[in-house]
Structure formats: structure tokens, C-alpha cells
Amino acid sequence: MGGDIGSIPRLSACALFSLRQKSNFDPEAMSPMPRLPFPDTSSPDLAPIRDRIVSARGSLLDLYRLLLHSPPLATGWLELLTSVRNEISLPPDLRELIIVRIAFLNDAPYEARQHIPIALECGASQDQIEALHAWEQNTALFDDVAQAALAYTDSMTRNVKVPEPIWKSLRDRFSERECLEITVLVAAYNMVSRVLSALELE
Q: 3-state DSSP call for residue 122?
């Protein structure tokens, strides 16, 4: 789902300025078309997976339109991301802060546009969103649990390998299940942002 600045509800002009100035995210710097053309989604062969996507997501977002070039991949993607988004035990606001942080780190404006409104709806504050690009300098806005999760997110995203102190900080604050879920969440949305960036879906 594309859109202009106005498509980001409740995100202030100050927030957008902050994101432009202090991260690589620029919601206006968008390519009109991705590198692959969108397939004809009206094809009867695509109806089963197309209808599943619309039922699960409410509409056929541009990312899923592209994925319909390969129905098996679209099916697997939908199942994985549905589990990661809707069936894990993490607090929804923390889940979305992690996803938006990944979008900022990977310069994935499409991912950010999709998830900033969801983060706000899930209870993250606008101040947190505006500060997320440099959360280490704005720790007053994030409790120690969120800080541990964001540090882990940063390490996985930037370096892949996670130093023991960062892992220990995470493990001290989350259960075994939650640690696994955070790990898979971060890995999954790094996958999302890398697909978006490589195909120039912005």
C-alpha cells in the first residue's frame, strides 16, 4: 500500500521532519513502481491465495501483489508473517516498536508506513516513534524491557551475531519463549525490509 505523507495517520509534521533529518527514512523519496511489474491478480489461478490474503490483511497490499508472482511463496509468507504478527506472546506495542526500528535501520519506508500507524494503535506513543531512530539517546521514553529488546534488534539487524552481554540483558527480562519470538520477529522483518529494498518497493 503506497501513499503520500498524509497516509500516515497521527504522525505529526515534527515527527516526519525528525525522521528525515535523523535517519535515512524519507516518505517522499519513493519510486513510482517496483523493479518487478505487478502481476495480473485477477487471474483465476491466483484466486485462492489472493482471497486468503485479503481475508487476513483486509486488502491486497502492494507487497502481496508482488509476491503473487509466486503463489507458493505468497502462501508461505502469509502464514509466517501472520504467526509472527498475530500469534506471538509479546506485547503488541513492543512488537511494533521492534518492526519500525528495523524499518528505520534498513531504510525501508514502505515497512515504516505500514507499521507506524499500527504501532500507535497498539499503544506506542508518538514521542517513542519520533525518538526511535536514536532510541539510545532517548532512553527515558523506553523502559528497560524495551531497551533490551531494541538493543537485541539493533545487534541482529546490523551485525547478525549478538554479543553475550546483549543476549544476557534480553534473557534476564524475557522468558525462553519470548526470546525465541523476538529473535524470529527480528529475522522475519529483516527479510521483509530486504525484499522491499531489493525490489525497490517503497
A: coil
Set out the domains of the chain in order of their start, with CATH numbers. Answer: 44-86 (no CATH), 90-198 (1.20.1290.10)
Q: What is the DSSP letter of 1?
A: -
Cβ neighbours around 152 below 10 Å, total: 23
Q: Dihedral angle at the C-alpha atoms of 108, 196, 73, 55, nearest 10 degrees? A: 60
Provide the grid cell at 69: 508472482
Could you tell me where the DSSP H helices lie in the chain?
13-22, 47-57, 62-67, 71-86, 92-105, 109-121, 126-131, 144-159, 164-173, 176-198
33 by DSSP, 3-state: which?
coil
Integer Cα distance of 126 and 116 in angstroms: 9
Strands (E), 19-175: none
What is the pTM assigned to this prediction? 0.82
Q: pLDDT digit of tens for each residue in the chain (202 aa)?
A: 333 333 344 444 344 434 544 444 444 444 468 999 999 999 999 999 999 999 998 999 999 999 999 999 999 999 999 999 999 999 999 999 999 999 999 999 999 999 999 999 999 999 999 999 999 999 999 999 999 999 999 999 999 999 999 999 999 999 999 999 999 999 999 999 999 999 998 8
